[in-house]
């Protein structure tokens, strides 16, 4: 998959920007806070219509302006695509593929796959489960439209059920709809668990060998999917998982009413990462954490390639400056094939990478 070019209007600190990229290596350089990450974020946005660092789309719109526009010209599956996203402060976002309005972001699945590395990847190992779920969701949404649709529906149901649980004491009539929400959440939740389990099985195949090589053969990375306790086999069909989720919800009904929170469901899932049998979250050093996070990301890149037959676009945001020379060499040695974008502050560090096209960014403009 190749991003041939991108056009931005009022996206973050870009007033207007129009760039044509190399199908191989693109180096984006500039001083701090000039717009390097913003450019990578715009490219990544076209793959799932969401940002790795913004909670709401309106954060992506330039301060003081009401709407923003991102347009990408791509080559994917031997076809040309034009993807457009129109973001607005006051209305829902609009997405277009080759001029046709998409009903949901899930319809973007499979057009542009991206894998983004950024300094915050450390959180993938260190922080709570929410970061790891975000990683899983971003990967699977890009590969499976059905997953993206189920995730969007689950999130809506979750918000509505949360409101019921929050307000039921003041408005007891709200409880009349609780069973319906539980039913729909168990149905869509079963789809999420099924796809997550299959993705993690593949990640278990690809990430540990990368980690072993990365750590000079010293460390063993192990991954485990933690989901709702009553689910016997997360890889089973959604139909089989569904009654098991309902059972769990039923047994937590009173606890949910008391806590006024959704306590049961895959919104609490986690991906446990262990190094040599020890929890990486609790015990890994800074270097080990970095290595494990990179292994997960590189592992997901392999999954994309094996699933689609095309390398995803690789976005390396400020990662090289964070790595020691051995890890830098390892990453650079593992990104052959496919289009790559690297941001950096001092371009001399990246000399000799190959046939790169260099873009200099200053104050949201290409210079
Ligand atoms: N919605 C927005 N409207 C206008 N400017 C924004 C918006 N969001 C972020 N910015 C600004 O964009 C600038 C560039 O941010 P970006 O994260 O791309 O920097 P960078 O070049 O990657 O820097 P660094 O090397 O420090 O990571 C920041 O100064 C930030 O304040």
TrEMBL record:
The RecF protein is involved in DNA metabolism; it is required for DNA replication and normal SOS inducibility. RecF binds preferentially to single-stranded, linear DNA. It also seems to bind ATP. Keywords: ATP-binding, Cytoplasm, DNA damage, DNA repair, DNA replication, DNA-binding, Nucleotide-binding, SOS response. It comes from the Bacteria. One of its GO terms (cellular component) is cytoplasm. It comes from Lawsonibacter faecis. PROSITE patterns: RECF_1, RECF_2. HAMAP family: RecF. One of its GO terms (biological process) is double-strand break repair. NCBIfam families: recf (TIGR00611). InterPro entries: DNA-binding_RecF, DNA-binding_RecF_CS, P-loop_NTPase, RecF/RecN/SMC_N, RecF_2. This is DNA replication and repair protein RecF. It is found in: Cytoplasm. GO terms for molecular function: ATP binding; single-stranded DNA binding.
